[in-house]
Design goal:
This protein is α/β, with parallel strands linked by helices. About 30% of the residues lie in helices and about 20% in strands. It folds into 2 domains: about 5-95, Udp-n-acetylmuramoylalanyl-d-glutamate--2,6- Diaminopimelate Ligase, Chain: A, domain 1 (3-Layer(aba) Sandwich); about 105-225, NIF3 (NGG1p interacting factor 3)-like (Udp-n-acetylmuramoylalanyl-d-glutamate--2,6- Diaminopimelate Ligase, Chain: A, domain 1, 3-Layer(aba) Sandwich). The strands form 2 sheets. A 6-stranded mixed beta sheet has the order 5-6-8-9-10-7. It has a 5-stranded mixed beta sheet with strand order 1-4-3-2-11, sandwiched between helices. The longest helix is centred in the N-terminal third of the chain and has 11 residues, at about 5-15. It is elongated and about 55 Å long.
Length: about 260
């Protein structure tokens, strides 16, 4: 019999929970660590729709990237998501920043989608508390591209509806990636002399700074830069736990017109 804590322990070996950043909240966040698992749902975000889908497919466990409980909660009332999960008997296991920077985690999967030669991949030197965490990875492109060409490549590679980008004014031979909101790495990328940065949630003043520095920045969307982990994670867990049926679910909350 496989229980939730078995899955947690395996994830802990692949993406140690103690490497998560101090502000984060990872691990088993809702439910019973000793509950038997026969079916599990892997997703980016836990929502009411995900809870309903997990119940409909008979899952006992939801494995999510974003923590279902992130900020402190003073009460849990009827109608709240956590209340709903408990009522449905669902356990939630969340792996967030520890999975972002794991050896084959979210940033690794993002780099694999961004046309980077994986044998050139390296950690981006950073002057922050995340010095060796792997939040920024950089490498050489398999095929050099012009800025607009690379932006279109990223849009297609991540199945995005749109991307916004700055034109760094020169051909892109090297690129850095940081999943989710990675614009805080802007100065580190410029210092490292990398030609482009693929990330999300880049602010206007950061776009101006990137353009002035001759850096192509591609804001490909938070969901798009992180959903790349869902299928590989489900496949890895299925290979380790063949007695469990793993499903994937979720959709981008952002709509485009």
């Amino acid at each position: 019999m496989t229980v939730v804590s078995d899955v947690r322990d395996y994830l802990d070996r692949q993406a140690p929970f103690d490497t998560a950043l101090s502000f984060d909240n990872c691990g088993i966040l809702v439910g019973d660590p000793e509950a038997e698992v026969r079916k599990a749902l892997v997703c980016l975000d836990v929502t009411e729709e995900i809870a309903e889908e997990a119940e409909q497919c008979g899952a006992e466990l939801i494995v999510s990237h974003h923590p279902v409980i992130f900020h402190g909660m003073k009460r849990i009332l009827k109608g709240d998501l956590v209340y709903l999960l408990i009522r449905k008997g669902l356990t939630v296991l969340s792996a967030h920043t520890n999975l972002d920077m794991a050896e084959y985690g979210v940033n690794y999967q993002l780099a694999a989608h961004c046309g980077i030669e994986m044998n050139t991949l390296r950690r981006l030197p950073q002057d922050t508390e995340r010095q060796s965490d792997g939040f920024g990875l950089a490498g050489v492109l398999e095929t050099p591209m012009e800025p607009e060409e690379y932006a279109l490549f990223i849009k297609q590679a991540l199945s995005g509806k749109s991307v916004k980008f700055t034109n760094g004014g020169h051909r892109i031979k090297t690129a850095a990636v940081s999943c989710g909101a990675g614009s805080y790495l802007l100065d580190d990328v410029i210092r490292a002399g990398v030609d482009a940065l693929v990330t999300a949630e880049v602010k206007h003043h950061e776009l101006l700074a990137a353009k002035a520095a001759g850096l192509t920045v591609i804001d490909a969307g938070h969901y798009e830069t992180e959903q790349v982990i869902i299928t590989p994670l489900a496949e890895e867990l299925a290979a380790r736990f063949p007695e469990i049926s793993f499903y994937t679910a979720g959709e981008n909350p952002a709509q485009y017109v």
